[in-house]
Design a protein that fits this description.
Number of helices: 4
Helix content: 10-25%
Number of domains: 1
Low-confidence stretches: none
Strand order of the largest sheet: 1-7-6-2-5-4-3
CATH architecture: 3-Layer(aba) Sandwich
CATH topology: Rossmann fold
Radius of gyration: 14 Å
Largest sheet: 7 strands, mixed
Distance between the termini: 17 Å
Mean pLDDT: 89
């Protein structure tokens, strides 16, 4: 599946389209270069999931935790600053990703061996001002 975001005004529709097509999946690994818009898109997803106040990027805290009346617990990870899988284990990443809660993970390559099967790989790229998201389920 592919979602095109041509401007910030497209974000609510793109987030809704994403949610309507995520099926039973709960873990989403966002792959993209720095500055592509991962956090901006995840913020739009959180709003679409009923979260009114989003804390912004968890760059320094590594994870932000939200409670949605419609979707339950949601974890937003930004693992850019972690140095190893051991560091991720120390903050409880494994318990969170295996908790049956929604997980949106930025920089998932840092914990690749910890991720379960069935993760939805979300590849984002920029083409000029357009952001393109491609979704595929991993095995």
């Amino acid at each position: 599946m592919e979602i095109r975001i041509e401007s910030l005004t497209d974000l609510p529709f793109a987030a809704t389209q994403f949610l309507e097509n995520m099926g039973d999946a709960k873990i989403f690994a966002f792959h993209a270069e720095m500055g592509t818009g991962k956090t901006t898109f995840i913020t739009a997803l959180l709003h679409a999931m009923g979260i009114k106040e989003v804390e912004g990027s968890p760059t320094y805290s590594l994870v932000n935790i939200y409670e949605s009346e419609m979707f339950g617990s949601i974890y937003h990870f930004d693992l850019f600053r972690i140095e190893s899988e051991e560091e991720a284990l120390d903050i409880g990443v494994e318990e969170m990703i295996y908790s049956d809660s929604f997980c949106f993970i930025e920089w998932p390559d840092k914990i690749e061996r910890l991720l379960p099967e069935g993760v939805v790989e979300v590849r984002m790229r920029k083409e000029g001002d357009v952001r393109i998201l491609q979704l595929a389920i991993s095995n």
